[in-house]
Predict the 3D structure of the following.
Amino acid sequence: IRDRSTGDQRMNKAKRRVKVYKINDKGQWDDQGTGHVEIKNIEWDRMGIVVKSEKDKTLTILESKIVPEDVYQKHQDTIIVWTEGAEEDIVDLALSFQEAEGCAEIWDRISDIRINLNSNGPALAGVTAT
């Protein structure tokens, strides 16, 4: 008898494996590291995009609040880009997924959370979008 959960966990990790990129001062994408992405509560009332390092699971490469504004874009089947920050602290970020299925899954979660944020406000978004 084969333990399917181990295989399922490996497939899930592959789906969620990403490279994180950030635009530098010269307008070029800098590789911030490779890890596994998940959507989770990062504050009591807010969901976020969290990427933990592939090499060091205790290291967080990215933690970004999901906002209701239309700042997210999906490119091709494997890339999600967005802008965060205000005025002079604006940062362009990107997740490049190993597999299209993982990108679609995370894109759908972000979209659902944004819908909840726009209809319910932040206090309910973390509760209804988990």
User: Anything to note?
Assistant: Residues 52 and 60 are 5 Å apart (CA to CA). Residues 1-7, 123-130 have pLDDT under 50 and may be disordered.
